[in-house]
Design goal:
0% strand; Pyrroloquinoline quinone biosynthesis protein PqqE
Length: 67
């Protein structure tokens, strides 16, 4: 809490690197146009292929492998 002051300041820190600045997602922020343009560009591009992020299933241990 002492670093980012909570709430929209957390988002300001994450997006701009400065918790003391106005949250760039806020429509009153001078940086809002950049955030909006980025969101619109991402929305217009095709979605990437989904990648499952899970470890391969491990084979069950046998008594031979436990020794």
């Amino acid at each position: 809490r002492e670093i980012d002051w909570g709430g929209c300041r957390c988002q300001a820190l994450a997006l701009s690197g400065d918790a003391a600045t106005l949250d760039p997602v806020c429509e009153r922020s001078p940086a809002h146009a950049h955030i909006r343009a980025t969101a619109e560009r991402e929305a217009a591009s095709p979605a990437p292929a989904f990648i499952y992020r899970r470890p391969e299933r491990l084979a069950p241990a046998t008594t031979d492998t436990l020794e």
